[in-house]
Request: fold
Amino acid sequence: MADTLNATGPNMVGLEQRGVEFLAPLPASEPPEENPAVRTDPRQPVPETAWARLPVSPQTKKLDKSCFAFVPEKDVYYCPQGRMLAFEKAKPDIRQGQKITLRVYRCAGCGGCPLAVRCVSAKSRGGRTISRDIYTVDRERHAAKMRTPEARTRYAHRFHAGETPFGWLKHVLGLRQFLLRGLEKVRMEWLWACTGYNLRKLTREVARLRALFARLSAEAVN
Reply:
């Protein structure tokens, strides 16, 4: 289990190849069922009565990527108006510190589109673009898994088991950076910090058991 920053394509694929199940939140890149852009024939436009329900990206305030249907057989996207976004170019990029190659798809028919204001940025010099990389399919599959009730229930345990110790080490112990250099020295410093946390848990548990024993003893005497 990990946080969103660790939910990268290489991590997903690498752990899957090693037979390790991976649970980490990931923004859904797969269109939800209630999205009107999900239709049998993506070449057909979304009815105007359903435009208000088209999802909008919180970052760009424009129509979300999930409004665009990808057809792998043709290697093209289709927008909510049924217009095609053909492959334009490949370009390098860096995502979460990792070098990747993006495939960029651009629509050549945004002129006169009734959804253009909600779809294309005012700074854009061309039509709307959508990009994907070699891990897009893996992220979509992972996002679908994380939306299942089972995955959500299992991941919920991480907040106590994982976040509580880190919160104590950072805020109470003040361990926000290591003081030593070198892997062996850092490992030793980390083990001392973990030992301090475990001793704290142990003393609290001993105190709880003593209080319980005292209460039971008092009840037995009475």
